Amino acid sequence: MALFKRGEVWWYEFILVGRRIRESAKTSRKTIAKEAEANRRAELERTLAGMPAEKRENRILSVGEIVRRYRDNYPLTHRPSSVAFSRKRLAWVERHLGAVLLGDLNEDRIRAYMRLRQQERAAGRTINMELGELSRAIGKDWSVLWPEVRKLEERKDVGRAITSDEECRLLAAAGASRLPLIASFIRIALTTGMRAGEITSLTWGQVDLEKRTVRVGRAKTAAGTGRMIPMNATLFAVFSQHATWFVARFGELKPEWFVFASGAPTPNDPTKPATNLQTSWENARDRAGVSCRFHDLRHTAISRMAEAGVPDAIIMALAGHVSRSMLERYSHISLIGKRRAVEALEGIHSTREMGGVEIAVRAVPSVN
Questions:
Q1: Other CB atoms closer than 10 Å to residue 158's CB: what's the count?
Q2: Are the beta carbons of 114 and 93 closer than 8 angstroms?
Q3: Do the Cβ atoms of 122 and 235 come closer than 8 Å?
Q4: CB atoms within 10 A of CB 109
Q5: Which helix (H) or strand (E) holds 353?
Q6: Which neighbouring-strand residues pair with 9?
Q7: Nearest-angstrom CA–CA distance, 203 and 211
Q8: pLDDT tens-digit map of 117-174
């Protein structure tokens, strides 16, 4: 091994498996040049051993540069709803960590990010998803990048069904929103039980106003992908009104155009799905004073179908669930519905035959 100078810059030279390696250390300091030489030799030895070696240029890239590179290439191999999810999560990462060099993204930095996001009232699951998306952008697992940083605890409850009063407040707040799409977005969720990603990825080719059906595209589960949802009168009115607005805005309804077009504050590009609906939803929810997640609208739709006595098999077909256990997990029958069910037993007479004698059995009255 040898070090030598060319002008003000140190170079190193060594032989590995019969090949001479001569490269600039890119420094005017000899001590750093020695370290660069040792690191370069170790890097080549790892490559020879079949072990992955980090690209040297990545060491001086910022988190923002890594994120932008990942974000630009992501749409090539992922569906629009996944692209929207990734961009939303990485927007927070870029905001708080964008200027940090990749080499400085240590565990202390990650813990500081977690604390900052908690101060901004982000949930544990949200923060975990943001950092998980960052690790994918970097190209390494969380456990490799930050082995001593544990993921935050996440909520174990599955959500709740909102009340009729809360629904009215949400729709009133949405109607006053600057973004004209959010009210329709909420109504579709409440009348179909579709997930947020399923709605944002809808194209007009999936909406048949003549046959009054909506065909879900690629969904979270195989059972949910391609499922057909009939429109009731409310849903038909929502899509019809939205279609009228859409034609006035863009001139026509092309099958490949997205029902909820991109653009803020007013949609301007129907070839891309809207990415700002989550922010509009949160603003409407806060104005309405309703504490719930958007996914709770799906719980609400499923619970109301169950309360109305819709058979489990039909609910599972509409919601895209794969098992009865999943239906039980998502169906939240309200106390009012349960009370109505047990009160139906009042006054009911049944008979059963025992030893040839018919015995009348009356439901026991409730005791107040």
A1: 14
A2: no
A3: no
A4: 16
A5: strand 349-354
A6: 6
A7: 16
A8: 999 878 898 899 999 999 999 998 999 899 999 999 887 666 788 999 999 999 999 8
Cβ–Cβ under 8 Å, residues 201 and 217: yes
Q: How far is the CA of 256 from the CAs of 153, 216, 260, 273, 309, in angstroms?
A: 40, 14, 12, 11, 37
Cα Rg of the chain, angstroms: 29
367 versus 117: the higher-pLDDT residue is 117
- How far is the C-alpha of 195 from the C-alpha of 220, rounded, in Å? 9
Tokens describing residue 104: 């400085």
For 132, counting Cβ atoms within 10 Å of its Cβ (0-12 exposed, 13-18 middle, 19+ buried), the class is middle
DSSP 8-state code for residue 302: H
Q: Could you tell me the strand order of the sheet in which 9-16 lies? A: 2-6, 9-16, 19-24
Residue 84 burial by CB count (10 A; 0-12/13-18/19+): exposed, middle or buried? buried
Residue 212 contacts by C-beta under 8 Å, 6 or more apart in sequence? Answer: 230, 231, 236
Q: Per-residue DSSP letters for 220-256? A: SSTTTTT-EEE--HHHHHHHHHHHHHHHHHHSS--TT
List C-alpha distances in Å: 181 to 39, 177, 345, 363. 55, 9, 45, 51
Q: Which residue has the tokens 């077009």?
A: 261
Q: Are 278 and 92 in contact, with CB atoms under 8 Å apart?
A: no
- Token pair for 52: 């992955």
Instruction: Report yes or no: 145 and 138 within 8 Å, Cβ to Cβ.
Output: yes
The answer for residues whose C-beta is within 8 angstroms of residue 314's C-beta and 6 or more apart is 305
